[in-house]
Amino acid sequence: MSKASRPYGAVLLLCYNITDMNSERTLIRDLPKNTNKTATIYGWLHKKRLLGGLNFITVRDRSGVAQSLIENKAELEKLRGLQIGTVVEFIGKVVKDDRAPNGVELHDVKVEVLSPVTDEPPIEIDKPISHQSEHLDTLFENRVLNVRNLQEQKIFLIRSAVVQYLREFLLQNEFTEIDTPKLLAEATEGGSEVFQLDYFGKTATLAQSPQFYKQIMVGAYERVFEINHAYRAEPSATTRHLTECTMLDLEMGFCDHAQVRQMVGDGVKYVLTKLYKVFAHELKSFNAPELRLTDEIPAFSIAKIHEMYTKATKIDTTQEKDLIPDEEKFICDYARKQFGSDLVYATDFPLEAAKFYHKIDAEKAVTMWADLLFRGVEIATVPMREHNYTKLVEQMKAAGLNPNDSGFKYYLQAFKYGLPPHGGCGLGVDRLTQKAIGLNNIKEATLFPRDLNRLAP
Ligand code: ATP
Ligand code: MG
After folding, report:
1. How far apart are the C-alpha atoms of 441 and 19, rounded to whole Å?
2. What pLDDT score was predicted for residue 189?
3. Between these two residues, 41 and 20, which has the higher pLDDT value?
4. CA of 236 to the centre of ligand 1 (A)
5. Which of 55, 100, 291, 373 could cross-link to 67 by cystine, CB 3.0-4.6 Å?
6. DSSP string, 185-220
7. pTM for the full model?
8. Helix (H, G, I), strand (E, B) or coil at 269
9. Which residues line ligand 1 (CB under 6 A)?
């Protein structure tokens, strides 16, 4: 089979063993198996070419594209005036032809139009779609149609696989998948990046993460995860923030920080390794960087990174409680050069950075919190939580919060009635996909991105 005709959906279909709903239908990827037979294909007109009186029509279905040669005038007439995107049924003879996309062509085609398209589409589906930063707005404005472009489709096949592999890894490690509300009474975690909305005359907020719920669920299942949307009222336009993002949140009990870090690191390595194997061809078509992973993920404390960065750039970051974006790039470049690793942990966040639910390492006077960085950007936050009820209440009070506040009632119940030592992570699926492919902007890895200026499509 030629490379050009590689059926992108096939890898996933192999795993799911899908049988088609219409037994008469041959999926385009299966045409070569039907050489010299009559086959029926369904799909969209993808490309039309007139070559010296010969009409080559390319049809796309979910498994690939196929070329058809239509010579019969009456059949051709049925397509007169119809545009790319027209939904068709073609019945024809499968003929071997090495010049065709997947080594075969349909001849003597009988055409049936299922959904005619008479308006010329605003973009050419078969032309490369520009991802230059100045063209991104046009890209999203035309999203409904440009997802039909074969190269564009690869991004979301890869993203679908990222989610599948994450889930696969976690299920293999006995995590239970949960699903928690995104409409909340109040922003119990606090912070300014909270969306508020009118909820039948009361104020509700959109969840920034399932933080409290996943911790509560450790009390039932020990190991839980959720892959769902999180909402952040990020007021600035960056290449790494969305206002609605997809996060993998996991939480595990009976573990120490090293074990949580190991689990998250192993999960990300599992996803990337499998992705680079199964989607090697697709990733190459995006010029994705070569994947470099090490058995042990290099780790540096926040203080050490500040020190190294300040020394190298003469920009003093030693008073910062988190890494600045340029430091994330700096330490990732360092880890790649010195250790051959695309992943690096930034550990030991300063006490000032801690949220009330974080576990403190009193001896080292740091927060038990690490960030996992990948190719220049934070992809996951990986802390331990304070599991002791009395200590947690103390930490709440010290942070100026009222433990009797109704927003904490159910959360604290979980601790009062027994939670083991636990930790977890929040990992950005959009960022992981973006960086795995090597896209410049997180929005390119998101189907219908939401940001400061965009709420549609
Ligand atoms: P950053 O410092 O980059 O803004 P954060 O530390 O505020 O991120 P967390 O609250 O730690 O983010 O969220 C966990 C993970 O979720 C992040 O590591 C990132 O991968 C992802 N994430 C967080 N906020 C966003 C966002 N606005 N858009 C896309 N992904 C996000
Ligand atoms: Mg973070």
Report:
1. 37
2. 65
3. 41
4. 13
5. 100
6. SS-TT--S---EEEETTEEEEE-S--HHHHHHHHHH
7. 0.94
8. helix
9. 232, 234, 240-242, 245, 247, 378-381, 426-428, 430-431, 442
